[in-house]
Write a structure and sequence with these properties.
54% helix, single chain, 2 domains, rod-shaped
Length: 76
């Protein structure tokens, strides 16, 4: 609702406020790990446009494919 001068008056509906808080938490939860990954020193671009981390993952997946295993690569 607006007053005579065109300014908004009143309060936001509680469900809208809850939705905005949930959206904010999701964004923070999504961008925080992405930010840490972006500044990770193992994320240096090397040949073929791959990062060191991506190349390590590709090599691990190729090794598993050759061995016929489905092992999970340890983090780090």
């Amino acid at each position: 609702m607006r007053d005579e001068s065109g300014n908004w008056v009143g309060r936001l509906r509680p469900r809208l406020v809850v939705g905005m808080v949930v959206w904010l938490v999701v964004m923070i939860g999504w961008l925080t790990p992405a930010g840490f990954d972006a500044v990770d020193d193992t994320n240096t671009v090397i040949g073929e446009g791959l990062t060191r981390k991506a190349r390590r993952n590709v090599m691990f997946l190729r090794a598993n494919a050759l061995c016929g295993t489905t092992a999970v690569r340890p983090a780090g």
